[in-house]
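Protocol step 4 of 6: record predicted structures for both targets in the notebook before any analysis. Target 1:
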Amino acid sequence: MKSKFLYILPIFILCIFIFILGNIHAEESQSKYNIKEIRVIADEDFPPYIFRDEKGNLKGILVDQWGLWSRKTGIEVKIHAMNWKRAQRLMREGQYDVIDTIFKNEERKKIYYFSNPYADIEVSIFFNKNISGITDIKSLKGLKIGIKKADSNISLLEEEGITEYVEFDTYESIIKAAKNNEINAFIMGKPAGMYYMYKYNMQRDFRYTHPQHIGNFHRAVKKEDIHILNAINEGFSQINKLEYEQIYNKWFGFEYRSPELVLYIKLFISGVLIIGFVLIIWSITLKKAVEEKTLELTNTVDKLQRSENRINAIFKALPDLFFILNRKGIFIDYQVNDPKKLEYGPEKFLGKSVSQVFHKDLAQKLMVPIKESIRSGNTQMVEYTLGQGEDIQYFEARIIKYDRDEALAIIRDITERKLSDMKIYNMSIRDAMTGLYNRNYFEREMEIRNGQNNLNQSVIICDLDGLKFINDTLGHATGDEYLRIATDIIKFCFEKKNTVIARIGGDEFGILMKDISEEDVLKTKYKLKELLEDINRNKVIPISISFGYSISQGNKRDLKEMFKEADTFMYKEKLHHKQSSKSDLVNVLMKMLETRDFITEGHCDRLQILSAKLAKAVGMTDSKIQDILLFSKFHDIGKIGVSDRVLFKPGKLTEEEFEEMKRHTEIGYRIAQSCPDIAHLADWILKHHEWWNGEGYPFCLKRDKIPIECRILSIVDAYDAMTSDRPYRKALSKEKAIDELKRCSRVQFDPYLVEKFLNIL
């Protein structure tokens, strides 16, 4: 019993000694600074340093550190955390003694005294994985950037001229906005960023840059409270490295356990029991030395592990393939985050040279930069392709020196970028409608050929005649069809090696040829005419192409002058076509009317007879009556531009269909203007559906504002329509038709002309 008492007594005395010493020190801290309580304000949104759990309680490294500080000093600490912008404002207003989680900058140094930095915070740019080329602040221009209100990083953006960004109250709200694609990049401390990305399972959707800068967390007090800062610094200096490390390991996910520490504790206890209280001080010193060394080793291992984890994370995040090759081009090792990206399995390339894996030309192309990178140490770039046709893939290889006789090849699939570049380039030189080259390419090609010493060059100009008339009569869809037909014919006749065919205007085509004689040009022209004749057998409006050319004939000539000569030649032929076609337009229009089945059952004949009688009854001249006759025939010519679905619908038209039908007056107006023989009828064709009371279309004209010719035709046309059979009804009797005309007099029809018309029936 006595021996057990002697065994326990030294330990009991030591504990009492440490307790008394701690109380004395706490009382000294309180009395020295005359501080009983400290109010601390901090950001509530910087995990794992400080944040709120699901119940709203404050958690994190700083909560634990301040708790330990309070126990060391005996001073009560009240920690408050809130929105960072508000926290800074309340601190400036003097409502708190200390502000934590603050970065030091020039503006803040004017207000506060700062503690030594206690944490290094890497600040990175986080961005959506689908965005490439983000390396620094400058590369963020044009993106939707998120940043926390009152964050010191705002000044970094503004220094680079970036003033358009979205401010958020918390880091968590930034992450939520990024998840919902409201922003595509944001700047924040890496610990908070990684914490929230893992919390919301976004780590695969976002990447981050190397640190843009490393900020330091400080604690700060207003300049008049320097005594508080001294108390803070002294209190935190009492916390040893092991205690700090245990807090950090708790929140960063590492648990500190050391068999060596347990051994030293056992040795320490044994030593105390053996040598007594006299050696306690020496044992404590030894223990502290061992703890520091163990902590140093632990930190070293920790850093190595973190470094390895970062490298692995980078490899997994990058879409690239990594290969290590020696000076002879033999594959030694590889790294890839998705084995499906490999063109060949590892068994087909590891231990083999590039000449054994790839075809000869590609192997030679790759060996040059491999050797050069190992020799010079400079990064080499090379692009290459695999596959053919639609299966072709484009790759970019960055080759850098890896070791004394080894190189690291970083391979990236750039197929999408290449195809996009080619598509954009083709759009810049091709005409979307015909697929031919456009005018810009044509003119550039003329410049190039002007600089060549080819003495036998030709310029040919083709023009699709009457495209405007086709568009006005048959619609732009038909006009586009005529353009494509003309394109196919021209390509069939002229497409050959060293020939450039381009659409250089709305209806104009340019052709550049080499080594062709005038005889060959004329043969091709006749071939083109024969093809047009075959096609025109089935066309209501025939396709006509005017043709002009200029040939250098062994002389050095400026292609621009030759272009003007060919253009002049073409316009002369076009003028000839125009003159010869004028007389055919009326026949073409009649053919179009017949094709659309408008001239049926003597309708036009009856209209002409009745219109002429009514015109004569009101005293119109013979020349006017002749115009009335022509007007009666062509007043509905615009209906050739109305779809068959609407034109031949047996039932009542819908509102939308009626709007389409109403367009026939405007279409007819444009057609008439294009035809010299009926151009003087254009205004009547446009207005022949106006009503006496102003409720007609297209202008809602009233009474005498409506041309008399239109008023005459509207009465005659209505009467003939009512007394003729239609697909959806039988004809009315003459008496009922007359009653209807009387009913609509002063509404739809001129009452004077109705009276005259009834007199001649």
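Target 2:
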Amino acid sequence: MSVVGFDVGFLSCYVAVARAGGIETAANEYSDRSTPACVSFGPRNRSIGAAAKSQMVTNCKNTVQGFKRFHGRVFSDPFVQNLKSSLVYDLSQMPSGTTGIKVPCFYTDAERRSVIDAAQIAGLNCLRLMNETTAVALAYGIYKQDLPTPEEKPRTVVFVDIGHSGYQVSVCAFNKGKLKILATAFDPEMGGKDFDERLVKHFCEEFAVKYKLDVKSKPRALVRLYQECEKLKKLMSANSSDLPLNIECFMNDIDVSSKLNRAQFEEMCADILARVEPPLRSLLEQAHLKKDDIHAVEIVGGASRMPAIKERINKFFGKEPSTTLNADEAVARGCALQCAILSPAFKVREFSTTDVVPFPISLKWNSAAEDGVRTMHHLSPKCQYVIQKVIPQASGESSKIKVKVRVNIHGIFSVSSASLVEVQKSEEEEESMDTEQSTEKEKENEVLPQDTTTSAEEGKQEKKSDQPPQAKKAKVKTKALELPIENNPQWQLANDMLNLFVESEGKMIMQDKLEKERNDAKNYVEEYVYEMRDKLHGIFEKFVNESDRDALSLKLEDTEVWLYEDGEDQPKQVYIDKLVDLKSLGQPIQDRYTEFEERPKAFDELGRQLQQYMKIVEAYKTKEEQYDHLDEAEVQKVDRMVNDVMIWMNSKMNQQSKQSLAMEPVVKTTEIQAKTRELFSTCNPIVTKPKPKVDLPKEENPSEPNGPVNTQENPEAQPSGTEQAAADGAEAKPDMDLD
């Protein structure tokens, strides 16, 4: 069972895996732990990750990046429409009304539901969606050994996560074995991308004046400028001097160049940097904390490396921001830890996590003219639940409605049930009839011998039955009526649409697999052409005659030309057949070379065994004790076998020495190995036969001693009964030691 944590960011993704030794960040096929969050669509297949990022310039119209902000939004959303014009690729409306891009993002209820759908489409079993700062807090706290006990005052730590597309902060209270998120705040529109865009805007204006170039009119040039500005931003975080920006053949074969330093960059982005403090201030207000209550400030995220951001965080809290966590991998590691805690496959230290939902729940009461429909919505008016059939009481009073809402482990809001509390007042006659019936039941109970007592309710009813009916009060009853709930599925895919996407994803995966196999088959042909052409004039030169070499060289040359012309885009089977055709000429040459290399080793092994068995036969003939137990007939069988194999080996070696290397070998390695196995199976059981065991004769113990005992030789010295027993006991142990 795999236990994996995913951190899908704006620019890159990280995958952490829980193993027996701890949490590890997985590397991709390029041995890189960071995988670009990028997808490129080609005519036949998709490219994902690093392969897609390499096509951002050459295939910019069909390469999608930065789609995290579209998660869970409808196509008609003003945010999507405003951003659509600035993208180099196109967005299209899907049948469900949502944009066709799905990668995890943990902001709103709608986006959380979209993430669950995306995980299901991708075939992932999502145990929990975690807020990024909560995952960071878990990765921080679970390894701490000095946390206060549950009875002591918790340790308060602030976590600041500034990524490429968003800015999030949270304050967390730690005790031993648990953490609790006290408050969160964020600015979803502030991140590293804003600094990149400011740089791009600056250089677009500069190049328009300096080189008369309209950069935004050329998507490829704009993508290249974004890439170079991102590199320049990272360099300015480590250097304060002037740094160059040079791009060759930028537009219209014009090379462009410029320079910028950190001071100029920070001045240019002063309004963006001013947005660092408001979420921090809001965080302390929500948690009702003072700056002195904060024990530490941890910063993560790619944009947190900028000195200007660190400086403002330090100035606000009066504490130097700590960087004990890996700024890029902390979120993925925290998610993997949470997954390991929830999974039965791992035994993890107990550590409870209490998260917080930063969005409120609002209620809307419609007028009676609208049939009394009540609406509840969470996060935004688009995510709403409509409670139907709400009617006033029979008396004209307003109805009382009980609504149960839930927030599950993913942070997704739902209305589980809604009921109308109906108040009913019963008639006096009806109540009197009920009382008489209860009295009759009491009398019946009194007749039964086993019932010795009556309940307090029965006594009370019996007492009431003695009163006149006109003195009784009307009885009030309450009845709960379940109300239907209508939810707006606009932010979540319907089951039939979700199944359609799962099927489409499966088809695309299969298409990607088939295209990869086709490309691999083509690469095998190309690889064989270049490899065989080099070897024909190298190590294979002695193993092929001139006519065969010329024929194969011509075949290889024709195949190379075909690969780059008619064979550029052919089915997989065509490449397989082409490779088989080439190997029909080249494989015999390669086999002769392989035989030449392996045949001496096989002859050496056969000769070593022959020498071994010849020595054993000679030792038997000289009557050595080690082999004197062997049967003479069997030894003669070994001798004959050794002689026959020796003659065969010498004959084959002589014939092979006279054979040309360009001809088929007289004997192949497989024949020599078969002969070696035959020799071993025939001779080895005979020469390794163990000696028979010889049974030694058993010694007979005499029943009585032949000589006289001490008491017989010296009767006067015979002790009394007690002394004799003591002496016998004392002499028993030495006798055993002597034996």
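Step 5 preliminary note on target 2. The chain has four domains: 4-37+103-190+275-354, 192-273, 361-425+483-491, 508-688. The chain is about 45% helix and 15% strand.
Proceed to step 6 after PI sign-off.
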